[in-house]
Amino acid sequence: MAKFLGTKPRIPRIRLLLPLLLVATAGAQEKPGLTYHSTVSEVRLVFFATDEDNHSVEDLQKDDFAVVDDEAVIRDFRSFTRSAATNLDVVVLIDGSDSVLPHFQREVTDVVQMIAEGPWTPADHMSVLSFSGTEAHLICSEDCRSSFSAEQVVRLRGGGATPLFDAVEIAAGLLAHRRQQDSWPVIILFSDGGDNISKSSFGDGLERILASGAQVYAIDAGSAGRWSKGTATLRRMAEDSGGRCLPIEENAIAIVNSVIDDLHSARVVTYPAPDSRSDFHTVRVLPTHNLNLQFRSRRGYYGWSAGAH
């Protein structure tokens, strides 16, 4: 049965980034009402490498790249491995507002095809949320491959305004709440990127995405080939999280395959966290020998040295 999610769940703002995992050492015992201080000792960075033809690089070596963490160039890594995640935890967001009306049926058709024909495994989880007006509705949670239907989305479509940032926060919160070490959290967002009613800001939504460790694969339902503020918003969400922004004209199964390809090709490096004068560390992965190599990762992580419990 669909669950109404008009009000955002109270989800702690975790000062922790996954897959950029900050391993910290506590400086005091945890007690009710006590604030303890900690220092970040290690950064865990997940990234993807492709060649000039956008094909995954299978034989990547640790001396083929360097990480630039703020102003520090990192070449000496504590570890360099494939990602240990083997399952997908996907939340699909469907924009049902008036601004995407010309593409709404295409959104629903693509989601139906993704769920029915995608190369999912029995351990993968799939949830679907629709949002419009002032509300977001949970169509199905975790088991959508057996319980989702297009009629559920059409029946709940409310038109009107677009609460995109509120919906993104809800989706990221769901993924953070049920995060498992072997799961890969993903948000597949069908929208034109517009928002005109959310209580949350773009920054709030992006922070919640980073805290959940989710990658955003944004499917742009705006005007094809035209730049817009909404397109820029979708690209920023996708790129800052290490995901991708794709046009709605892209084949639905190709979208799923992009997600699964990333799951299988992800690399992980760990290294000592460098000193920084800012709370937010920007991160880039750059080639050292073959300049045709291209790297994709989230754009940074927060290095707060204090947390409240």
Compact overview of the structure:
The chain has 309 residues and is of the alpha+beta class.
Describe this structure in words.
Helix 4 runs parallel beside helix 5 and helix 5 packs parallel to helix 6. The chain has 309 residues and is α+β, with helices and mostly antiparallel strands. Helix content is 25%, strand content 33%. It has a 7-stranded mixed beta sheet, sandwiched between helices. The chain contains 7 helices and 17 strands. The N terminus and C terminus are likely disordered.
Gross CATH architecture of the largest domain: 3-Layer(aba) Sandwich
Q: Could you tell me how far the N terminus lies from the C terminus, measured between alpha carbons in angstroms?
A: 36 Å
Element order: H for helix, E for strand: EEEEEEEHEEHHHEHEHEHEEEEE
CATH superfamily of the largest domain: von Willebrand factor, type A domain
How many strands, which pairing sense, and closed or not: the largest β-sheet?
Answer: 7 strands, mixed
Mean pLDDT: 82
Structural class: alpha+beta
Question: How do the strands of the widest beta sheet line up side by side?
Answer: 1-9-8-7-10-11-12
Number of strands: 17
Q: Looking at the structure, what is the overall shape?
A: globular
Strand content: 25-35%
Helical region count?
7
In CATH terms, what is the fold-level topology of the largest domain?
Rossmann fold
Which regions have little confidence, pLDDT < 50, spanning 5+ residues? 1-38, 305-309
The Cα radius of gyration reads 20 Å
Our count of domains comes out at 2
CATH class designation of the largest domain: Alpha Beta
* Percentage of residues assigned to helices: 10-25%
